[in-house]
Amino acid sequence: MAPKHQLDRLAIGLMVLFCSIWGVQQVAIKLANAGISPVWQAGLRSLGAAVLVFAWAWWRGVGLFSRDGTLWPGVLAGLLFAGEFGLLYWALEFTTASRGVIFLYTAPFMVALGAVWLLPQEHMRRAQWVGMALAFIGVLVLFGENLLRPSGMAWLGDLMIFAAAILWAATTLTVKATVLGRTAPEKTLLYQLVVSAAVLPGVAVLLGEPGVFAPTPVVWASLAFQTVVVAGASYLGWFWLIRHYPATRLSSFSFLTPVLGVVAGGVLLGEPLTLAVFVALGLVGLGIWLANRPAAR
């Protein structure tokens, strides 16, 4: 499929689906944390997903080992991916998830800023900046009060998650701006899964994590969901979208993820759904609409 300059119904539908999956992932991580330490969990997820994506690519006849100039960009993307998740999971030892969300979702702005230099064909209009800002305000409405209640070493965790956001944006830009953006999404994803599966267990050992310490059916089911649905299917779809659609427009949809994660927590875990949740959802939706509205002629 030829690259497109606007998001069509397929891209919008897939992004809403993926953001819903990534929101539910927050619940799955909480459930799996009861029996598997966080960085070990991320490493096991990458390892399992790498096996599945490799099998899928082999079945479809995707050429994974051809010399196509993707090796070093792929290794870079893999290291950025591993660093992002290593920092993200470790940071939650110091700060709260709700504070972390605010810093993590600065990433779409970094993608937009990086695109100014690396992706000049994806020029951001004023309405797009306003839309992204409005969506971010929606996230602040949901979680912003926690910014006013830091404790202990929260600043360190916040800084680590901000660094994870930079790595997340850098991964997206690396894929879009290099030959990875023109290769099969299976190969692009495998670079990241294989490198992170090799790196993250070592990070977990350095952090002194216990690994799998209390396995239960719920813990394994939560890990399986993260492996098959999140790191396998949804990430594969995400990199297919990055290959064919503007990264800046796709990134604006990521603001849906934390709000839908709170909704999923309310539905699946019985956590409270306050008025702020629905106000935030409305602001995020309006911001995404502004950011993706076609330019007036």
From TrEMBL:
The record's principal subcellular location, in a coarse class, is membrane
As for family, the record states:
Belongs to the EamA transporter family.
Compartment(s) of residence: Membrane
Record-given protein name: EamA/RhaT family transporter
UniProt keywords, alphabetically: Membrane, Transmembrane, Transmembrane helix
Q: How does it sit in the membrane?
A: Multi-pass membrane protein
Provide one Gene Ontology cellular component.
Answer: membrane
Q: Which organism is it from?
A: Parazoarcus communis SWub3 = DSM 12120
- Locate the transmembrane regions by residue number: 42-59, 71-90, 102-120, 127-148, 154-177, 189-207, 219-241, 253-269, 275-292
> Which Pfam families does this one have?
EamA (PF00892)
Positions of the EamA domain: 11-143, 156-292
Taxonomic lineage is: Bacteria, Pseudomonadati, Pseudomonadota, Betaproteobacteria, Rhodocyclales
InterPro entries, A to Z:
AA-Vitamin_Transporters, EamA_dom, EmrE-like
